[in-house]
Design goal:
- With about 350 residues, this protein is an alpha/beta fold.
- It folds into three domains: about 90 residues, 3-Layer(aba) Sandwich (Udp-n-acetylmuramoylalanyl-d-glutamate--2,6- Diaminopimelate Ligase, Chain: A, domain 1), CATH 3.40.1390.10; about 200 residues, UDP N-Acetylglucosamine Acyltransferase, domain 1, CATH 2.160.10; about 25 residues.
- About 15% of the residues lie in helices and about 30% in strands.
- A hairpin with a 2-residue loop joins strand 22 and strand 23.
- The N and C termini lie far apart (about 95 Å).
- One of its GO terms (biological process) is lipid A biosynthetic process.
- Catalyzes the N-acylation of UDP-3-O-acylglucosamine using 3-hydroxyacyl-ACP as the acyl donor. Is involved in the biosynthesis of lipid A, a phosphorylated glycolipid that anchors the lipopolysaccharide to the outer membrane of the cell.
């Protein structure tokens, strides 16, 4: 499918600089541009590539002013990255979607399957499960008894959804995601650890994305909840009875212990670790590898263990490199002071 610069500009409300009849049929990174491709520039680090890219069209921010001649047609927009996202979504929507139930899939007789649903080979759909319209379930995915999945969801291969969990509309679950495994609940006894039955569920609200091999554990009682619009990366652990606020995003390898409440619009870098039974407010930012032992108020931007202001953290990091020398100097100073005391006492 081919689109002209004029059509694209109308769709994303952009201003054309160059040939409005330039056409594209694919996407490419600006440094790997080719004729017939559309690229984008939002990070100044990549500015040199715009003068040599072979892409036919490049999206740029409105404040971009070229310093040299550019061969490509430019489309100026408020935010090049957001505009690219709109075009990529349009591209995805234009792709034909699979439909129908493969003859090698198992669908329980009591399951209710919506319209235009795709269920791939060797997928399993349990008793009394409900699958919404236009949802796609790829091969080898397990959907347990009593699960409810909304409309327009996408479950890639080898997703596992345990019994009675709830998935909203327009959710995406990537391969290896496990929704509703038992929370890590054990009671210590003189003979070891007795398992505490986990009788709750998991609720994913609308437009939640769950990355590959991410686990969201079912609640001991009640529900573990991921609210609408949250985006969870690969290899993340969300423990029992956690509550993740709307539009919060978490990078890979974040781990959240049980019964913790996370606010809305938070951003957590990779490998952030969060203790259980605490509360983190709205719009909190945590840098990669931060360790959080206690509550954090809304609006905080922190890094480190325990988390601190980024400026203080980086100052402390610089000092940390000098600690061995500082320790030696301190030892030498103490030795000199003791020698001086002995001289004074004489």
């Amino acid at each position: 499918m081919e689109f002209s610069a004029k059509q694209i500009a109308e769709f994303i409300q952009g201003e054309i600089i160059g040939d409005e009849n330039a056409t594209v049929h694919t996407f490419a990174k600006i440094e790997e541009g080719m004729p017939g491709a559309i690229s984008f520039l939002s990070n100044p680090k990549y500015t040199p590539y715009i003068y040599e890219t072979q892409s036919s069209i490049v999206l740029v921010n409105k404040d971009f002013t070229p310093e040299h001649e550019i061969k490509a047609t430019l489309i100026k927009v408020e935010n090049a990255y957001e505009s690219l996202a709109k075009l990529l979504n349009l591209y995805e929507m234009s792709k034909p979607k699979k439909q129908g139930i493969d003859s090698l899939a198992f669908v329980a007789p009591s399951a209710k399957i919506g319209e235009n649903v795709y269920i791939g080979a060797f997928a399993y759909i349990g008793e009394n499960t409900v699958i919404g319209d236009n949802t796609q379930i790829y091969p080898h995915t397990f959907v347990g008894d009593g699960v409810k999945i909304g409309d327009n969801c996408l479950l890639y291969s080898n997703v596992n959804i345990y019994h009675d969990c709830r998935i909203g509309n327009e959710c995406i679950l990537h391969s290896g995601a496990v929704i509703g495994a038992d929370g890590f609940g054990f009671a210590p006894t003189p003979n070891g650890y007795d398992k505490i039955p986990q009788i709750g569920i998991v609720i994913l609200e609308d437009k939640v994305d769950i990355g590959a091999n991410t686990c969201v554990d079912r609640a001991t009682m009640g529900a573990t909840i991921v609210h609408s619009g949250a985006k969870i990366d690969n290899l993340v652990q969300i423990a029992h009875n956690d509550e993740i606020g709307s539009h919060t995003v978490m990078a890979a390898q974040v781990g959240i212990a049980g019964s913790t409440k996370i606010g809305e619009w938070c951003m957590f870098g990779g490998q952030v670790g969060i203790a259980g039974h605490i509360k983190i407010g709205d719009k909190v930012g945590l840098g990669a590898q931060s360790g959080v032992p206690g509550d954090i108020k809304s609006g905080s931007q922190l890094i480190g263990t325990p988390p601190m202001d980024p400026k203080q953290y980086f100052k402390a990091s610089i000092i940390r490199k000098s600690l061995p020398n500082m320790q030696k100097e301190l030892h030498d100073l103490r030795k000199e002071i003791e020698e001086l005391k002995q001289l004074l006492n004489k």
